[in-house]
Amino acid sequence: MAEGLGKLQQRIGYPFRQLGLLEEALTHRSYGRPDNERLEFLGDSVIELVVSQLLFETFPKLREGELSKMRSSLVKEESLAEVARGIELGRHLKLGKGEEATGGREKASILAGALEAVVAAVYIDGGFEEAFRVVEGLFRGRIRQMEEAWRDRDYKTQLQEYTQARFKEVPRYTVVAERGPEHSKTFEVVVSVGGRIWGRGSGRSKKEAEQRAAEEALRKLDGEA
Fold first, then answer.
1. Whole-prediction pTM
2. All domains of the chain, ordered by start, with CATH?
3. Which residues is 221 bridged to in the sheet?
4. Tens of pLDDT along 59-114?
5. Is 109 within 8 Å of 93 (Cβ atoms)?
6. If we measure between CA atoms, which residue out of 49, 62, 216 comes closest to residue 149?
7. Which neighbouring-strand residues pair with 174?
8. Contact between 107 and 25 (Cβ < 8 Å)
9. Where in the sequence numbering do the catalytic residues fall?
């Protein structure tokens, strides 16, 4: 068991001083007491706090509602279970015969609870800084994927969310020029907020021109933020 726990500690990146805490974190109530339910309660709060801070720092322009949605998707049961599977947590669990026989090592609820308990054990054993580092390591890849997805969203959506947050207004797009024959027109669009033009763009369609205008506006607004 100790050798197996050594490998688990390597995967989470934290060597326990009190190995008994880790063993308790891996003990499901079906196995006997002491079980991991109290640690699960504490770990839930630690994970939520760390993930909240990571999202707050990664997405400085997002409002509370959007950040809350992101956090919920990261800390929901199935997401936690996926993180647990990534560190092969299931193989280290202590389960009762009934849970063992019914595939308890792969149940999302058991894996999610065990992950929360392990994080709580790190917190108790090493303090908040170590718990923060462990949670950051476990969730870094998922938050990076969110960041990339955010950057890939269309510029008009990003601009509208930005201006609503900063100015309490939505952007206004105006076609200022149309050039070329009917079958091959080029459109020029400006985008304004609060009566001020922030971006200008052109394209073979109004939609393309609006996207380019929004992209330019975002660059200018970022420069003034």
1. 0.71
2. 2-152 (1.10.1520.10), 155-224 (3.30.160.20)
3. none
4. 887 888 889 999 999 999 999 999 999 999 999 999 999 999 999 999 999 999 99
5. no
6. 62
7. 190
8. no
9. 44, 116
Question: Measuring CA to CA, which residue among 59, 60, 48 is closest to residue 139?
Answer: 48
Quick one: tokens of 183? 């079958």
| Residue with the two structure tokens 């970022």 | 222
Residue-wise pLDDT for 172-217, tens only, equals: 999 999 998 887 889 999 999 989 999 999 999 999 999 999 989 9
DSSP the chain: -HHHHHHHHHHHT---SSHHHHHHHTB-TTT-SS-SHHHHHHHHHHHHHHHHHHHHHH-TT--HHHHHHHHHHHHSHHHHHHHHHHTTGGGG-B--HHHHHTTGGG-HHHHHHHHHHHHHHHHHHH-HHHHHHHHHHHHHHHHHHHHHHHHHS-HHHHHHHHHHHHHS---EEEEEEEES-GGG-EEEEEEEETTEEEEEEEESSHHHHHHHHHHHHHHHHHHH-
139: its two tokens: 């969730």
The length of the chain is 225
Distances from the Cα of 14 to the Cαs of 10, 32, 123, 153, in angstroms? 7, 26, 11, 36
- Burial pattern 181-190, b for ≥16 Cβ within 10 A else e, equals eeeeeebbbb
